[in-house]
């Protein structure tokens, strides 16, 4: 027998319990329980709000990527387009001295133009989405 099959037979239900998606979930739960006893501030409102603040952007990007994946596409440019938008926003606000509302609009326009370029490459020039968005 192969080692993985042999170890699964040896450990039985324990190996099945930690395989797939259950293992990481149980590890996360164990880590949360340990940290809640080890520190005073882990289960605080401030820590919870910190975590929510850090995952907001990632969550918004994940929702957008869900639609792309549902239609069978792929978009590798999400992170780089977001970075471009933030760089344009920062430049317009700090270096050019424009108000934040104008800087945000500039970042959104930069991201939209990048998306339009990718869309034109994919639809008009028949470049595969993987290649077109990887080039961004």
Record keyword descriptors for this entry:
2 domains, mainly alpha, 136 residues
Can you describe what's shown?
The chain has about 140 residues and is mainly α. The chain has 2 domains: about 5-40; about 75-135, no CATH class. It is about 75% helix and about 0% strand. The protein contains 7 helices and no strands. The chain has helices spanning about 5-10, 15, 20-40, 45-70, 80-95, 100-125, 130-135. Helix 5 packs antiparallel against helix 6 (about 100-125). The longest helix has 26 residues, at about 45-70. It is flat, with a radius of gyration of 22 Å. The termini are far apart. The mean pLDDT is about 90.
- Secondary structure class reads mainly alpha
Shape: flat
Q: List the domain count as a whole number.
A: 2
Number of strands: 0
State the end-to-end CA separation. 47 Å
Strand content: under 5%
What's the helix count? 7
The profile of the biggest β sheet is: none
